[in-house]
Amino acid sequence: MTFVRTTLARAGAGAARLRDSRAAQWCLETALPRIVGVWRRVWGVAGPILSIPSAFGWAVLAAAVVALVLGAVFGWLELTTIGFVGLVVLLVAVGFVVGRSSFRVDLDLALTRVVVGERAVGRIAVTNTGARSTLPARIELPVGASFASFHLPRLEPNGQHDDLFGIPTTRRSIITVGPVRSVRGDALGLLRREVRWTDPQELFVHPRTISIEGSSSGFLRDLEGIASKDLANDDVSFHALREYVPGDDRRYIHWKTSARTGTLMVRQYEETRRSHLAIALSTSSSDYLDPEEFELAVSTCGSLGLQALREERDLTVLVPGRALHTETGRRLLDDLSGVELTSSRQSIVQLAKATGNAVPNASVAVLVFGADVTATELQTASVHLPLGVRTIAVSCVPGQTVSRRQIGDLVLLSIGELAELPPALRRVNAA
User: Fold this and answer.
1) Which residues contact 283 (CB under 8 A, 6 or more apart)?
2) What is the domain partition of the chain in residue ranges?
3) What is the C-alpha to C-alpha distance for residues 153 and 138, in angstroms, rounded to an integer?
4) According to the model, what pLDDT value does residue 276 have?
């Protein structure tokens, strides 16, 4: 009997667990998705309505309800009057936001890419596409972290209103312009109804760059590559002759020398490397004294990269954590527009190591940084770059006199303004 009871109890407990597991599975797979779906549909309708009252509007509504409740409980006519006035004001405000707007809004940027300091302008054209006149409204245009506001007058059917606006481009950045939205509301700011009319557009404010044509050509004099000290059996730069060993390609046998010496001799070549420029731009705030140094470093990086692309050289531009697009000069400048200083503690040594790992076949590596990088750090950084890679470091410090120093195998250039970059590079090429 005890065994039977124990078995029945265990069977009952197992059945209960099975029911519980099935119930939990039904809740997760059926009930929960249904509840989420219903909530999304309800919020899809109620959300836009609940977003119309401003914080001030919600406060007035709450104060009116509290005043009515207290007036009814304590019999205070004053509170009851305040409550009714508050509700009446809200009802009057509703009249300013109801109704549909029949607009066609066009946002046109004259240029989507400008250089720092250039004038960037845009145009907003609003057309009434409805059969009735529209009430005056306000048009808002977000520009980056701020926004511009325009008054839209009463428009007759098919009427159009244009507004021109300017965008500050005092600093390098990627500015999101838009979306254009119309705003309807009451004078007290109780209710506010927004309607979005356009998609946002991006304005790229490129860094200043300078042409260094003719100054960088001395980096790599051979367009097909530069000879290295590594020997190869098949290349374009002849080095010497050596005796034939089994496995050598017979096409490289030098028959005249073989006939003269009586021993098969083959040509030996120096391995060449295709011209490949690697630029590593430090974005660590610990490498710069102020933002002006960083802007000069970004402009230097952009100038070197554009020149390499003009000369149709292979190019890789690295910042800590990622490589920038270098398919075209426009893509490179677009990426440089969004590069910002970071609080990362990645040193120039770590950046050089990452560059060596990412671009082991580079022929020239350029490290770009600010004033807070020491000669010791640069010497250590050069160790992490592959042998045979010509390494140049560019220190960007506004107001500094242009100079050139040799630190081990590394050449250190110091520039104080962008215009000094070409003559500084000529010093490297003349060395």
Assistant:
1) 294, 319, 320, 339, 340, 341, 342, 344
2) 50-94, 103-206, 227-273, 276-430
3) 8
4) 87
**What CATH code is assigned to 103-206?**
2.60.40.10
Is there a common fold for 103-206 and 276-430?
no
Q: What is the CATH number of domain 276-430?
A: 3.40.50.410
Instruction: Kindly report the number of other CB atoms within 10 A of residue 74's CB atom.
Output: 9
Q: How far is CA 318 from CA 23, 277, 326, 361, in A?
A: 55, 11, 10, 15
- At 6-20, the pLDDT tens digits run 554 554 555 555 455
Q: Count of alpha carbons within 13 Å of 383, Cβ hemisphere only?
A: 8
User: 348-358 and 375-383 are packed helices; what angle lies between their axes, rounded to 10 degrees?
Assistant: 20
Instruction: Label residue 212 by pLDDT band (50, 70, 90).
Output: confident
- pLDDT tens profile 335-385: 999 999 988 777 889 999 999 999 888 888 999 999 888 888 888 988 888
Q: What is the DSSP string of 333-398?
A: HHHHHT---B-----HHHHHHHHHHH-TT-SEEEEEE-TT--HHHHHHHHHTSPTT-EEEEEEE-T
**pLDDT higher for 326 or 41?**
326
User: Nearest Cα to 277, choosing from 361, 179, 161?
Assistant: 361
pLDDT for 227:
45
Euclidean distance between CA atoms 297 and 309, whole angstroms: 19
Residue-averaged pLDDT of the chain: 81
Handedness of CA 76, 78, 81, 85 (dihedral sign): negative
